[in-house]
Amino acid sequence: MIKATIITIGDEILIGQIVDTNSVSIAKHLNRAGITVAEKISIGDTATQIEQTLRRALDSTQVVIITGGLGPTKDDITKYTLAKFFASDFREDEAVAHHVKTMLEARGIVYNELNHSQALVPEKCKVLFNYHGTAPGMWFEDKSGGIVISLPGVPFEMEHLMEDEVMPRLKAHFSLHANIHRTMITAGLPESMLAERIADWEDKLPPYIKLAYLPAPNIVRLRLSAYDITDEESVTAEIESLFAQLNEIIPQHIVGFEDASMQALVHDILCQRQLSLATAESCTGGAIASRFTAMAGASAYFNGGIIAYANEVKCNILGVNAKDIEQQGAVSETVARQMAEGARRAIGSDYAIATTGIAGPTGGTKEKPVGTVWMAVATPTRTITSLRNCGTDRGQIINRAAAYAIEMLYKELKNNINK
Amino acid sequence: MIKATIITIGDEILIGQIVDTNSVSIAKHLNRAGITVAEKISIGDTATQIEQTLRRALDSTQVVIITGGLGPTKDDITKYTLAKFFASDFREDEAVAHHVKTMLEARGIVYNELNHSQALVPEKCKVLFNYHGTAPGMWFEDKSGGIVISLPGVPFEMEHLMEDEVMPRLKAHFSLHANIHRTMITAGLPESMLAERIADWEDKLPPYIKLAYLPAPNIVRLRLSAYDITDEESVTAEIESLFAQLNEIIPQHIVGFEDASMQALVHDILCQRQLSLATAESCTGGAIASRFTAMAGASAYFNGGIIAYANEVKCNILGVNAKDIEQQGAVSETVARQMAEGARRAIGSDYAIATTGIAGPTGGTKEKPVGTVWMAVATPTRTITSLRNCGTDRGQIINRAAAYAIEMLYKELKNNINK
Q1: Residues A14, A128: one domain?
Q2: Are A304 and B307 a contacting pair at CB < 8 A?
Q3: Residues B397 and B250 in one domain
């Protein structure tokens, strides 16, 4: 089994100033190719810590991928630390120098000493040419036989180098077996009840297939993983047949496969059945529309949405009755219902989702505390409503309210299919 | 200096199935209290790897915080591994058992053997009572004097335990000094030019104050950090005076402080000046509205928005001229302009932002390739427009278009203030 360590460098990670998404993307690339990530480590911009971590990573894994610390400023020390680690002098790479100069000139940036330093590379590395940025990637071969790859921390540049340079070279360098991961999405059973229901099935899994439970609000994902597989086809078939067995045990709880989100399931149904959707959002403030429009092809069914924060927008554009807002409050069943129906009408769609609630941190009352959200789904034949408490933190409330509302729509669509 | 290691456990992190945000939040908590995170490590659900990593972490740091692997199912092994590591038997915690039972009953879930196992805790730990979930946190004291804390992986539960249990206990246990981080946001100078401009200032920084450059699209953040400081007040004042010096060197490039995003800067201006905002989004599909409504207090100025995906919505609700769409295309300067002006009118606001573009992956042409985005800002006195190429990937295009449009609004607001 070829194992890898991912090392992300930067004090901003250790003080919690940024969320590290680079290592997620690198892990996906490696896994897809059959390289197993044994460990992910984040450390600061300190030479001794980089050297120690690198040494330890090379002792236990054959591939080490490092991101960050390749910028032109003084706090970027990765390149110099790697040169020292591999006892390498520097040389100027002409192709990189030319590229950096051209790139900066196109953006109207003066080429200076600091930029020039980006074209200096350790003699002992292969340069991974970075078309999208000024810091090249580097590929070192350690005397242990291990490979050390250094990539810039800018996500877009890192992604380009992983795809176009790193993965083709790793595949050529190692003889790789497959890592297989398949995920089934279940809904309606909490983790402990699900585990009880499928306990016999779980006990009979072969030792080379590992089961993981991944609980999330409203759903539990079940992942089957097999690592370092030479006969990919037969193990994939085996995993498929294991999932087919689950389909006998918990048929009504299986809602999808792989990492599809609830909105992706709705997306598929609306596309297949050529139905259209509109949104009317108050407390979720565009989060529901964003989830749909983030998916390629959303324009096939998503006509549009109204974010009705002010009451005037609820009344003037969605046609909510001002008197109802006055008497029942903007966060009420009748307003949620009128918003959904108003969105269907104003935007012209088959289905519409609406939310109105108190996202906080202020605005809560004893009767309607922060987190109270009314949601509604309007369909061609009826409008349904639901009241949910979505938590206490603003971000959490927005996310949960969006997730619950989309789930309501999903169930209603499934209902209509099954009829 | 009190140092910490954060260990996140779960194969889902190593195969890139989830983004780890828990460690970000834990790092923030620790830093704020003056505990320096030396390393963050993600490993799989394997007992030997957990034990080895824990041993190593205790060798170099005094605090180890572990998240994940506390669920009721067989793949959750953290609790059993920790009990073995500390050579501890299990006992049943009555308070936890009662809490789990009550919580599950309220949700209509059958209490079974698996749930019962959640009330079993190692004898040698202090229980950190988890009001929001069924898995309690655990606090161990190692014979080395180090503290090992195990928390559930569900973000909301982890957050509650960090805030209400872990931080008060750590503050009581250690005599802590301060970590100070201050961030200045600059715009308009790329990293290399900025570094050149402030080189003299950077050279004169005292050795206990560390400078970091954090480049992002359109902006570069400058962070000054000082660790393990006994005289917090005087070092904070020193950092403030260093930033005041920068204000002499690059006055026109400083746009804000701390981790404020461009939308937070706009948020502040709109609140201070009691101005209101509306959005009209096509390709960004709610992303702009979401960025504003995610901030507490947005309802003070954000009246609402129209997500105009279908052309009918652009015409019927925003009053865009159908003939212009036909002749110039939906992605055109005139449509962006009419959308912004239409949103101001339909929603009733002082300012409005609009976007219309091709988010891809399909729909591009030679003249208007994927990534082409027209954006407009309508103000009480004029409407300005801008054409930007926002990249090639759908997610990237949506994010950049949102960022550019908000930046346009920011500049326009600044302009109007300065006049």
Answers
A1: yes
A2: yes
A3: no
